Amino acid sequence: MNRWDGKSTAALAQRGWKHSPTICHGLIQAALEKGEALEHLQYIDDIIVWGNTAAEVFEKGKEIIQILLEASFSFKKSKLKGPACEIPFLGVKWQDGRQQIPTDVINKITAMSSPTNKKETRAFLGAIGFWRMHIPEYSQIVSLSTWSPAKRTISTGALSSNKPLPRSSRRSLMR
Fold first, then answer.
1. Range with the lowest mean pLDDT among 45-49, 75-79, 166-170?
2. Of the residues 85, 100, 115, which one is the last residue of a structural domain?
3. What CA–CA distance (Å, rounded) separates 112 from 120?
4. What are the pLDDT digits (tens) for 105-162?
5. Is there a contact between 11 and 45 (Cβ–Cβ < 8 Å)?
6. Which of 15, 31, 58, 108 could make an S-S bridge to 71, C-beta 3.0–4.6 Å?
7. Residue ranges of the Reverse transcriptase domain (predicted)?
């Protein structure tokens, strides 16, 4: 059996309401629970549904839209997307149930040389931006790239001679 793991999204707002994320999320969630909506994922006013076939996704989306229309919500046609195999949701492209890092972000990161100072490190971190959560051991990489043992000295206590920190202290600071 071929599995079609496509998705569909919708962004909506209730008529006559000012947009408050907390209120909006609660109202939509209550309407969907009352209408016994099928499996879906909701974040404030974005909703995503999925299924094995395009027809299944379309039917689920249609049912959720009907539930919300009965609860006095309105939709902009331009905000309804799908069904599709790859779809943007919460600013991220989703494919096969996983977030996909855009190729332009990957190309930009791979084209950069390893940072050698704080300014280059900040530029690198800015390029990574949102995608840092997908990089394994990100915090350790960043702490190592900003660590400069020659510049780190202690002028008080037992090490008052301004010597670089001992190796064991470096490790404890990096954690």
1. 166-170
2. 100
3. 9
4. 778 777 877 778 888 877 877 777 767 776 667 777 666 655 554 444 443 444 444 4
5. yes
6. 31
7. 12-93
Integer CA distances (angstroms), 76 to 70, 79, 84, 95, 170, in order: 16, 5, 18, 24, 55
Which tokens in the block code for residue 163?
Answer: 């010597």
Residue 78 has pLDDT above 60, yes or no: yes
Task: Please state the domain count of the chain.
Answer: 2
Residue range(s) defining the domain that contains residue 112: 103-174
User: One-letter amino acid identity for 52?
Assistant: N
- Side-chain half-sphere exposure of 101, counting CA atoms within 13 A: 16
DSSP 20-68: -HHHHHHHHHHHHHHTT--S-EEETTEEEEEESSHHHHHHHHHHHHHHH
User: How buried is residue 9: exposed, middle or buried, by Cβ count under 10 Å (0-12/13-18/19+)?
Assistant: buried
Look at the block and give the residue holding tokens 């900040």.
122
**Rounded to 10 degrees, what is the CA torsion of 52, 58, 60, 63?**
-170
Q: What is the reported pLDDT for 158? A: 42
User: 3-class DSSP state for residue 151?
Assistant: coil
Retrieve residue 2's tokens. 């071929």
Say how far apart CA 100 and CA 43 lie, in whole Å: 19
Query: Are 99 and 73 within 8 A, CB to CB?
Result: no
